[in-house]
Amino acid sequence: MIDRFRLASILGLLAIGLCATPVVSAQPARYVDPADDERLLPFGGHVLTDRGDAQIVRFRNWERFNPVREIRSGDYTLELPEKDFDWSDFSYQVDGERFSLDDYMVKNHTGGLLVIQNGELLMERYGFGNNEETLWISFSVSKSVTSMLLGVAIQEGYINSVDDPVSDYLPRLRGTSYDAVRIRDVLQMASGVEWNEDYTDLDSDVATYPSDRVIDIQRYLATKPRVAPAGEKFNYSTAETDLVGAVVRAAIGNNLATYLENVMWQPFGMEFDANWGTHGNEGERGGCCMNITLRDYGRIGLFALHEGQLPDGSRMLPAGWMAESASPSAGNPGYGYLWWLNNDDTYRAQGIFGQGIYIKPQSNLVIVVLSAWPVAAAGGTTYNAHRNAFYDAVDAMLQ
User: Fold this and answer.
1) Across-strand partners of 348?
2) What would the pLDDT profile of 71-102 be if each residue is shown by its tens digit?
């Protein structure tokens, strides 16, 4: 049987008011006030089964449960000027029933909502007692950030292209099924290498592979057979998002947190310090566990929306990188380079328990939702239906 620490490690890899002023209201009464976090720490349980107060405390105190590396903000902050916008008539619809903004906060167990259009802050709402300084776990939203860091490494000349073999940067994988796998293939979850991501099967790969040391992950993956041609079949593989992170670390000769700090966090103007969960005391988890404030999640969306262009005009991502990242892949038309696609002109970063960054380039729109769903899912639930309807309704209201 998997113990609580193993389960936490497994899942760690997966991947109110009516104005712009932060307001706390319409929260489920059972959720603990942040002032009580210290009293409740430490506690038992694990990330898969925590609910209510325990879940909230873990999500906003990740560094108290797991090793992390710090990401420091700098002297410059990209301002998000507030623009008055009347949300009093806002509603969205699910299965023929109409819901208000307050309904969404409560029904979808929401810790934060942010809407930015044309660089202006139109909505900033908090639940669970959170505020503008609260760090909140990303889960698989981190995958999309790792994808952008790989793009930066290409722009800076550390990586030649996404068509390079993974084994060029991770030589331990030479002579294995990964000899045929390009960086592009792992970005698109289409390596063709066998992997079982079934979280209900305690004998699955995701439940049994060693995740506390990066070298052990590579050793484990080196044993896996090929089951499909590389680049053709989508198969969600958490471990391969760690390979993306490992490729970047090997190419730049540095850790991901420091690289992120130097190429995005400080020069783009993130407001608050953040942190990134690691494999034990080793490298950052390429597919999970960044802990960030609501506004800085929004700025990550703006970095993508601006295609990696910094406020001083310099470019951190290759020209066309975000369009390429948000293009349908051969194995899954709804998936790009570790970004989920909506088969229209929008794309999103998405994590279990209801974390998300929704981006619509044509409308200069970024929407952030931070949640604590009572189910460990990123989609396929009533909570996901409410989130998608919320995204669509905000987009429609701002047309």
Assistant:
1) 340, 358
2) 999 999 999 999 999 999 999 999 999 999 99
Cα 197 from Cα 308, distance rounded (Å) = 32
| 340 contacts 325 by C-beta, under 8 angstroms | no
> Cβ(138)–Cβ(291) under 8 Å?
yes
The 3-state secondary structure of the chain, one letter per residue:
CCCHHHHHHHHHHCCCCCCCCCCECCCCCCCCCHHHHHHHCCCCCCCCCCCHHHHHHHHCCHHHCCCEEEECCCCCCCCCCECCCCCCCCEEEECCEEEEHHHHHHHCCEEEEEEEECCEEEEEEECCCCCCCCCEECCCHHHHHHHHHHHHHHHCCCCCCCCCEHHHCCHHHCCCHHHHCEHHHHHCCCCCECCCCCCCCCCCHHHHCCCCCHHHHHHHHCCCCECCCCCCCCCCCHHHHHHHHHHHHHHHCCCHHHHHHHHHHHHHCCCCCEEEEECCCCCECCCCCEEECHHHHHHHHHHHHCCCECCCCCECCCCCHHHHHCCCCCCCCCECCCCEECCCCCEEEEECCCEEEEEEHHHCEEEEEEECCCCCCCCCCHHHHHHHHHHHHHHHHCC
CA distance 269 to 114: 17
Burial of 348 (0-12, 13-18, 19+ CB in 10 A): buried
For 159-205, the pLDDT digits (tens) are: 999 999 999 999 999 999 999 899 999 999 999 999 998 867 778 88
- CATH architecture of the domain 4-131+139-154+248-397 equals 3-Layer(aba) Sandwich (3.40)
Query: Which pTM was predicted?
Result: 0.91
How far is the C-alpha of 22 from the C-alpha of 85, rounded, in Å?
Answer: 13
Tokens 């410059």 sit on residue: 76
